Amino acid sequence: MKRLAEICCGSYYDAKQAALGGAQRIELNSALMLGGLTPTETTLSMVKEELPLKVVAMVRPRGAGFCYLEDEFQVMEQECKRLLQCGADGIAFGCLTADGNLDVEKNRRLLELIKGMGREAVFHRAFDCTADPFAALEQLIAMGVDRVLTSGLQLKAAEGRDMIRRLQKEYGTEIQLLAGSGINAQNAVALMEYTGISQVHSSCKAWNWDPTTVRNGVSYSIASGEHAMCYDAVSAELVKILVETVRGSEVQA
């Protein structure tokens, strides 16, 4: 069984580290501290022009949840079009109603754009906020979504492994399930073997120092303690360890 580790990236630098570590596919975002927002067209273009990566680009206009105003969604549609034109191999998206059901109309509108360009449609972790994950997954399958990123409706995928296992058993032949949140080289293979999935999603995060983060009583810190002067970034070394661990487990799968 072929297994794959997708790397969550927030910049061109991150994508380059992912490629150096041997990754084949990334999810490209901006503002990962908000859970990942739409990347710039320039970032996507540079990644596609310079790096040998399959790129799933995020379409998400803001932080918080996934119940979007029509004004916000109009921006999402235009971002989706532009990212596809810039060479995105797939789009990660997710729209919900206020009661936690799929917003069928908005999701269909994005799907039509994505499938119209022959690209992959990936429903992101908005899935973990759905009121009924089984009904939602059946709808996504019927709509033609290729893959769903999920932590099994828990904060971390390891905590949601029973749900992921059940979803894989019931629907794994109809749609790809990608486990994400808290995945690393130490737990990826065990999660794959327990759930039966073949793909994991990881940030492979390290910390880079920026001495101008706090100065003159002004702070732009996104972390605390020893990382207060740092920003998070993908580590090529951690990517390499994860990719090699996942690939090495294929023989036993």
Can you give a write-up of this model?
- The radius of gyration is 18 Å and the shape is globular.
- By secondary structure, it is α/β, with parallel strands linked by helices.
- Helix 1 crosses helix 8 and helix 3 packs parallel to helix 4.
- The protein has helices at 12-20, 41-50, 70-85, 104-116, 133-143, 161-171, 188-195, 236-248; strands at residues 4-9, 25-28, 54-58, 90-93, 120-123, 147-150, 176-180, 199-202, 205-209, 214-215, 218-219, 230-234.
- The relative contact order is 0.15.
- Helix 2 (41-50) links the parallel strand 2 (25-28) and strand 3 (54-58).
- The protein has an eight-stranded parallel barrel, surrounded by six helices.
Can I get a quick summary?
This protein is of the alpha/beta class and 253 residues long. Helices cover 36% and strands 20% of the residues.
Q: How is the quaternary structure best described?
A: single chain
Task: Give a quick account of the main beta sheet: strands, pairing sense, barrel closure.
Answer: 8 strands, parallel, barrel
First and last CA, distance:
6 Å
Number of DSSP strands? 12
Mean pLDDT: 97
Q: Helix content range of the residues, please?
A: 25-40%
Task: Compute the number of helices.
Answer: 8
Low-confidence blocks of residues: none
What fraction of residues sit in β-strands?
Answer: 15-25%
Secondary-structure element series: EHEHEHEHEHEHEHEEEEEH
> What gyration radius follows from the Cα positions, in whole Å?
18 Å
Strand order, main sheet: write it out.
Answer: 1-2-3-4-5-6-7-8
Structural class: alpha/beta
Outline type: globular
